Amino acid sequence: MPGNFERFHGRDLVFCDSSAARTAHKRLFDFNKDSYFVLDDTSLVIDNLSEILASCNTPSPSCPAKLHIVMAWSNMLRLATWKTEKPAVSGMVLTFKKAGIGSEELQPFLSGDIDEILPWLYYSKKHDALRKICHIAKDMIETRLDDFSMRAYCHLYYESEDRIAASSL
Asked: Using CA atoms, how far apart are residues 165 and 6, in angstroms rounded to an integer?
C-alpha cells in the first residue's frame, strides 16, 4: 500500500478494484470520499490486502475499524482462494460447491473462462451462491488476522450491471 495507509487507522476503509466499483459502493453506502482507496493495478489485490492485514497484526497496529472490499468477479475469486492469479473454473470447483453450485451445473463452463459463470449466476437469480462467495472471501481475509480486530465485508461489483450484485453483509 502506498505509505498513506495509516490515515485509515480506526476508520472505515473501502478498498476497490476500480473507480466504477467505488461509485457503485458509494451509491449504496454514501461513505465519505476519503474512505475510499482504488487500486491502480488490480493484479496486486492479494499483495495490497496482505499488507493491510500484516499492519493489523503488528504490535502497534494501524488498522482500519472496518474493511469494505468492493471487487469485480475475478478479483473476488482471487480473494476467495487467496491466489494472485486469475483462477480457472476447474480450480474453483470446491469453492463453488461451498457456495451451493453443483458439479453438474458447472459442466458447461469447465473448459471456458471463469468470467462466463457470473452472468449465468446473476441472471439465473442464484444470488445466494453469489453471497456465499462473498462470505468465503470475507472469511479468507478475516482468518489472516491474529486477533480478529477488524471486520471485513466483501461486495461483488458486477460491471455489466454497474452495481453491487452481492455482499457478505
From this structure: 30
Place of cell 453469489: 130
CB 67 within 8 A of CB 152: yes
Question: How far is CA 144 from its chain centroid?
Answer: 14
Closest CA to 72 of 169, 168, 165: 165
| Domain extents in the chain | 5-84+128-167
> Over the stretch 31-45, which tens digit does the pLDDT of each residue have?
988 899 898 777 788
Query: In this structure, are residues 114 and 95 in contact, taking their beta carbons and an 8 Å threshold?
Result: no
5-84+128-167: which CATH topology?
Rossmann fold (3.40.50)
Residue 151 has pLDDT above 60, yes or no: yes
